[in-house]
Amino acid sequence: MNIAFAPSLSLKVLKPAVEFYKKAFGVTEWRLYMNPDGSIHVAELKFGEALFYLHEEMPNGQEKAPETLGGTSVMLAVFADDPDTLMDNALAAGARQIHAMKNFDYGLRQGVIEDPFGHFWTLQKKLGE
Question: For residue 64, what are the domain limits?
Fold first, then answer.
């Protein structure tokens, strides 16, 4: 069985988020689906080999942006060869540090950021790799 996981993040406005993720994480645009007014409705972004989506919050939709909810229940975990640089880039692009990068006795080096849109990201790598 071949499985791929592609999370979808809900946001009120997508264009600033697309630009943030490009700057912070070096993502590339895979596809953009536009609204008639020129705003982005859905963005498909490539983060390394992983695909993730940004989806515009809809008034009657199930998906809600963190600012609408007053928080989020999801933590996105990203394994990277160099999570320190990834964190530095995200902070320089406007993310907020939640937990500094450090080594844990369970074998991971991890740090946590909150992006400017309220989504939380754990940036990490397995120690010894």
Answer: 8-126
Q: Report how far residue 103's alpha carbon sits from residue 31's, in angstroms, rounded to the nearest whole number.
A: 36
Total number of domains constituting the chain: 1
Task: Count Cβ atoms within 10 A of the Cβ of residue 124 and give its class: 0-12 exposed, 13-18 middle, 19 or more buried.
Answer: buried
Amino acid at 42: V
Nearest to 43 by CA among 54, 51, 28: 54
Give the closest residue to 118 by CA, choosing from 13, 47, 34: 13
Model pLDDT for residues 88-117, shown as the tens digit of each residue: 999 999 999 999 999 999 999 999 999 999
Model-wide pTM > 0.85: yes
Q: List all residues 6 or more positions away from 71 whose beta carbon is below 8 Å from its beta carbon.
A: 118
